[in-house]
What does this fold into?
Amino acid sequence: MRNDTVSRGVVAVLAVLALALAMDTLRLFGDQQWLGSIVRLDSQYFYGLFALLLPAAFLVYPTRVWIDWPLAVLALALLVGFFVSAEQALDEAWEFAAPLNVAYAAVLLWVIVLEALRRAGGWPLCIIAGLFSLLPLVTEYMPGPLNGLPAGWQDTAAYHALSIESMFGLPFQAFANLVIGFVVFGVVLQHTGGGRFFLDLAFALLGKQRGGPAKVAIVSSGLMGSMSGSVVTNVLTTGQMTIPAMRNAGMRGPVAGGVEACASTGGVLLPPIMGSTAFIMATLLEVPYVEVAVAAALPALLYFFSLYLQIDAYAGKEQLSGLQPSELPSIRTTLAQGWFYLGAFGLLIFLLLFLKREALAPYYATAALLVVNQLSASHRLDWAGLVKLLAATGNLLIELVVILAGVGLIVGALSLTGLSGTLVNDLLSLAGDQLGLLLLMGALTSFVLGIGMTVTAAYIFLAVVLAPALVGQALAPLSAHLFILYWAMLSYITPPVALGAYAAASIAGASPLQTGFAAMRMGSVIYIIPFIFVLDPSFILAGEPGATVVAMLEAVVGIWFIAGALQAYLPGFGALHSLPARMLLGFGGLAIGLPDLSLAWSSGPQNSVHLIGGLVGVAAGLLLAWRGAKAAPLQT
It folds into this structure.
């Protein structure tokens, strides 16, 4: 990524223009749009926003100057042309019958978007999007599931560039109408010292506990990951502070890296922001964003609670102590210096939950944060800091808009060929009437796609292809969408590709593969949580309050025993020397925590059956552990 002064300045200016266009379109400056006489259609807003951001992708992700600048100029010229002709295109339905010169321009834009996607998202995502975008041209020759309605190159190119189902489909629309404001809020929070504040606050609250630095990591990295939306970026920023602190406290390198990778991965699943994917989910489901955030809250908290228990068990087993009070920041001083970060969060949540101003909330919260920040001598932004902040905002907006437009090509191709419904029917046919089999197929598909794509890209594809099949099995739509999001995230902590764990390993100075397996062990409960909430709507607060409380208590108890079994140490009991005892505790905890499996398998046990079985297994495991506590050395 290019980071010279000229490029940073250009990106900063473009970020300001893009934000001004977005805020004016959302009528942030009043009921009257300043650009209302120029930007009269939604499509013109999309073309204008894309024209401000797409050309800069070739400056932010450069190859050679004599290639980058011509591509940037060509992208700008094409999008300006589509902007100017948007009204004529709408009146004459060019998306279905474009003139030849418009079709050629659409082909050029198609190719340019794929090249930008290659630079911003990598070769795997570019190849997947490129092949799928060509599907209408070859679908009549494809076998079974990929055989759909064919289209010529003119119709395909016009559909990609001119319709609101492809490049400018729902993912792009969610970006243009919702995501931009939250991206800005997250970047401003980081660049005004929010990351340091949340880290200090976590140290002040949790640093004294055994394994304190690791518990600090799950809080600080979870909060910052929620805002950044990127696992690897979060690992490389917060991990620079948390991983050395964990190492100094006596934690092994692979485990320290694994903890940070798990915390950063969970951050993207944590409300109130959840990166950009939650806003796209809300748009696809046509529900307020608040509903998505509320539904995601309990599963995310359950995951972070499981991380806390695992760390506590590990610290107990390794006899790690917390930090000394002299090594910790004062909670009073920390709050006095950074109270306005909590105030900005509180304002954001108030606007989201109570005033229902989803589109405008992040802008107001960001403005309030910037004003108060400039009154703080220690965090005040100077001119260079402001340019750096705007450039960082621009970089993130450029990356997101390119990826969303590129993934839109996949969605558009499936829409044009009519394959969206066909693939859903094929999945249902393969699974038969076994929801459990469909869930396992969905989990595996989500995991594999999460390896080759970004989380957002994988989620969008799966939301079109897989989620309707899950919903067709009488699952709650929100549960189904969260299920595929969780499984798309798992590739970040699961070898052989565990990018989040490998990034953490580079900071910890540990083996990448060992760090990946440590992360997989620490975050093991995240493999179970999606099956819990997809089978029991109580976990997304869709059931009766009493049922939610009971289901949550069962899950907490089950996770407590699972964490103890994995770490060979049960908080409140002590070391577990017996491997059979650990296995009984692990399986018993799993049986207690899982919901009614008869919903997934026609031959599955009723909830009461596996609950009783789990309690029996736990009791037997504890008895074995108690009897064999002094009979064998600790087995790990």
User: Anything to note?
Assistant: Residues 115 and 597 are 46 Å apart (CA to CA). Residues 565-636 form one domain.
